Amino acid sequence: LSESGIPQLVQLMIWDYATDIDVEGKVQLIEKYRRCGFSKVWFASAFKGATGVNQSLTLIGHHLRNQLEWLQVASRIPADILEGIALTGWQRYDHFSVLCELLPVAIPSLAVCLQTLKNGGYSEQVKENVEKLLGMSYLEIDTFMR
């Protein structure tokens, strides 16, 4: 990779939507790519559409935990290497699959994920901010929103 010149032409994006990311493995992977000459890396998480091919409602807690895992990875690498986090929201698994988790039902998840990333973690204050921003009286994290 170093000799190909590719590291000067592209930035890598590491995708993982799990709630139990192998943090140490990701840190080692990033270090490996740094040694090859890649100076920047992106992370890709999800706020919806990554939990089941026919999922209709968004489970906020799953996506929240994914953001928290990525924040752990970010805290263990040099700050100058992370270019950003692409917060994805998949509409379907492939072009032949049914639509899943339409955007309106996922707005609370998007808000929680964005606020968590912006604040570097999740807290009661983040939850209250999201409730206020969305005009909600109670935000459900670990059960499906009603």
TrEMBL record:
<protein>
    <submittedName>
        <fullName>HEXDC Hexosaminidase</fullName>
    </submittedName>
</protein>
<dbReference type="InterPro" id="IPR038901">
    <property type="entry name" value="HEXDC-like"/>
</dbReference>
<dbReference type="GO" id="GO:0015929">
    <property type="term" value="F:hexosaminidase activity"/>
</dbReference>
<dbReference type="InterPro" id="IPR017853">
    <property type="entry name" value="GH"/>
</dbReference>
